[in-house]
TrEMBL record:
The gene is secE. HAMAP family: SecE (MF_00422). The chain crosses the membrane at residues 29-48. This is Protein translocase subunit SecE. It is found in: Cell membrane; Membrane. Gene3D superfamilies: Preprotein translocase secy subunit (1.20.5.1030). Essential subunit of the Sec protein translocation channel SecYEG. Clamps together the 2 halves of SecY. May contact the channel plug during translocation. The keyword Membrane applies. It comes from Bradyrhizobium yuanmingense. Keywords: Cell membrane, Membrane, Protein transport, Translocation, Transmembrane, Transmembrane helix, Transport. It is a single-pass membrane protein. NCBIfam families: secE_bact (TIGR00964). Component of the Sec protein translocase complex. Heterotrimer consisting of SecY, SecE and SecG subunits. The heterotrimers can form oligomers, although 1 heterotrimer is thought to be able to translocate proteins. Interacts with the ribosome. Interacts with SecDF, and other proteins may be involved. Interacts with SecA. Belongs to the SecE/SEC61-gamma family.
Length: 63
């Protein structure tokens, strides 16, 4: 069943109108939270990496 490009664009436009778009404030808060979580994850993985590095060098007796 082929759909004409015009009909397809009409359907896309009608579906897009149904979407609840976030406000600028919601987008800003979400973006800030993403950056905060990235920073927290980075600190966690850096600390975990340093602890593992220390344990391995201690166990293997590497200076």
């Amino acid at each position: 069943m082929a759909v004409s490009p015009f009909k397809f664009l009409q359907e896309v436009r009608s579906e897009t109108a149904k979407v609840t778009w976030p406000t600028r404030r919601e987008t800003t808060i979400t973006t800030i939270m993403v950056f905060v979580m990235v920073a927290v994850a980075s600190i966690f993985f850096f600390a975990a990496d340093q602890i593992i590095r220390y344990l391995i060098t201690f166990l293997l007796g590497i200076q």
